[in-house]
């Protein structure tokens, strides 16, 4: 399936890390290290309380996203943050369905689909995180689990709406464990996702970006991003130091120069 000029995306998910000093240091490093107009997209996802600082100090070319959002418009939902608030602040993107939230906060596929819809309603680009546990992989359930997570969104809002977001395949067994899916393992699942989407709409299947997440670093980013259906990475641990994050960006840059 032809690539259809999908732009690579390197997205750094800081999870529950950072301080105002860290934000300042990272933004300064990105301003110094990134070209003014990179041929690939770069995004960072800080905790809610650091979003304002990132948005106001980041290079123009860097996108900023939140790690989560409420499925509700507004109201008596203490502790939650709405899509409209994120839009108002100046966010560009938002993660939905990260495996840590699916597991620790019991987020269901249906709840994730509602969050995806909320993001689109307020012009935020949602990154839909999908992936299987080690038990599910060992039980040959990878494709079923991943497709169920994606298909619930399609059933809720349709293919055209799904295509306005990004998909991130993050095998749960490779997150924060140091284990990485091989480039071939990642490609196998990415190709499956794209081929399933193509059964609904071939154009959308070729257009949508599918990121890989799970112990991606400078040393394996080039090989992973070289795969025909891998369009960048959702980076965890390696996004927490400027040196490690830029090492991944440099690999994306090398690949993007060939476009």
TrEMBL record:
<dbReference type="InterPro" id="IPR020861">
    <property type="entry name" value="Triosephosphate_isomerase_AS"/>
</dbReference>
<dbReference type="GO" id="GO:0004807">
    <property type="term" value="F:triose-phosphate isomerase activity"/>
</dbReference>
<dbReference type="InterPro" id="IPR013785">
    <property type="entry name" value="Aldolase_TIM"/>
</dbReference>
<feature type="binding site">
    <location>
        <begin position="236"/>
        <end position="237"/>
    </location>
    <ligand>
        <name>substrate</name>
    </ligand>
</feature>
<dbReference type="InterPro" id="IPR000652">
    <property type="entry name" value="Triosephosphate_isomerase"/>
</dbReference>
<feature type="binding site">
    <location>
        <position position="215"/>
    </location>
    <ligand>
        <name>substrate</name>
    </ligand>
</feature>
<keyword id="KW-0324">Glycolysis</keyword>
<comment type="subunit">
    <text>Homodimer.</text>
</comment>
<dbReference type="GO" id="GO:0006096">
    <property type="term" value="P:glycolytic process"/>
</dbReference>
<dbReference type="GO" id="GO:0006094">
    <property type="term" value="P:gluconeogenesis"/>
</dbReference>
<dbReference type="InterPro" id="IPR022896">
    <property type="entry name" value="TrioseP_Isoase_bac/euk"/>
</dbReference>
<keyword id="KW-0963">Cytoplasm</keyword>
<comment type="pathway">
    <text>Carbohydrate degradation; glycolysis; D-glyceraldehyde 3-phosphate from glycerone phosphate: step 1/1.</text>
</comment>
<comment type="similarity">
    <text>Belongs to the triosephosphate isomerase family.</text>
</comment>
<dbReference type="GO" id="GO:0019563">
    <property type="term" value="P:glycerol catabolic process"/>
</dbReference>
<keyword id="KW-0312">Gluconeogenesis</keyword>
<dbReference type="GO" id="GO:0046166">
    <property type="term" value="P:glyceraldehyde-3-phosphate biosynthetic process"/>
</dbReference>
<feature type="binding site">
    <location>
        <begin position="13"/>
        <end position="15"/>
    </location>
    <ligand>
        <name>substrate</name>
    </ligand>
</feature>
<feature type="active site" description="Proton acceptor">
    <location>
        <position position="170"/>
    </location>
</feature>
<dbReference type="Pfam" id="PF00121">
    <property type="entry name" value="TIM"/>
</dbReference>
<comment type="function">
    <text>Involved in the gluconeogenesis. Catalyzes stereospecifically the conversion of dihydroxyacetone phosphate (DHAP) to D-glyceraldehyde-3-phosphate (G3P).</text>
</comment>
<keyword id="KW-0413">Isomerase</keyword>
<feature type="binding site">
    <location>
        <position position="176"/>
    </location>
    <ligand>
        <name>substrate</name>
    </ligand>
</feature>
<feature type="active site" description="Electrophile">
    <location>
        <position position="98"/>
    </location>
</feature>
<protein>
    <recommendedName>
        <fullName>Triosephosphate isomerase</fullName>
        <ecNumber>5.3.1.1</ecNumber>
    </recommendedName>
</protein>
<comment type="pathway">
    <text>Carbohydrate metabolism; erythritol degradation.</text>
</comment>
<dbReference type="GO" id="GO:0005829">
    <property type="term" value="C:cytosol"/>
</dbReference>
<dbReference type="InterPro" id="IPR035990">
    <property type="entry name" value="TIM_sf"/>
</dbReference>
């Amino acid at each position: 399936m032809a690539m259809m000029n999908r732009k690579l995306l390197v997205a750094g998910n800081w999870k529950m890390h950072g301080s105002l000093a860290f934000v300042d240091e990272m933004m300064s490093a990105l301003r110094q290290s990134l070209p003014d107009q990179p041929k690939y997209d770069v995004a960072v996802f800080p905790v809610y309380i650091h979003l304002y600082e990132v948005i106001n100090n980041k290079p123009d070319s860097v996108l900023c996203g939140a790690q989560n959002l409420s499925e509700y418009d507004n109201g008596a939902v203490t502790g939650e943050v709405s899509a409209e608030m994120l839009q108002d602040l100046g966010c560009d993107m938002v993660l939905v369905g990260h495996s840590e939230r699916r597991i620790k906060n019991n987020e269901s596929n249906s709840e994730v689909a509602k969050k995806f819809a909320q993001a689109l309603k307020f012009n935020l680009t949602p990154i839909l995180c999908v992936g299987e546990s080690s038990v599910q992989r060992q039980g040959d359930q990878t494709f079923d689990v991943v497709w169920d997570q994606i298909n619930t969104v399609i059933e809720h809002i349709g293919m055209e709406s799904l295509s306005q977001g990004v998909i991130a395949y993050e095998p749960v067994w490779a997150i924060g464990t140091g284990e990485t899916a091989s480039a071939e393992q990642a490609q196998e699942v990415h190709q499956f996702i794209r081929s399933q989407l193509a059964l609904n709409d071939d154009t959308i299947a070729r257009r949508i970006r599918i990121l890989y997440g799970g112990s991606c670093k400078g040393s394996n980013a080039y090989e992973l991003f070289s795969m025909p259906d891998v369009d960048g990475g959702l980076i965890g641990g390696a996004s927490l130091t400027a040196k490690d994050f830029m090492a991944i960006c440099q690999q994306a840059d090398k690949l993007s120069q060939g476009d």
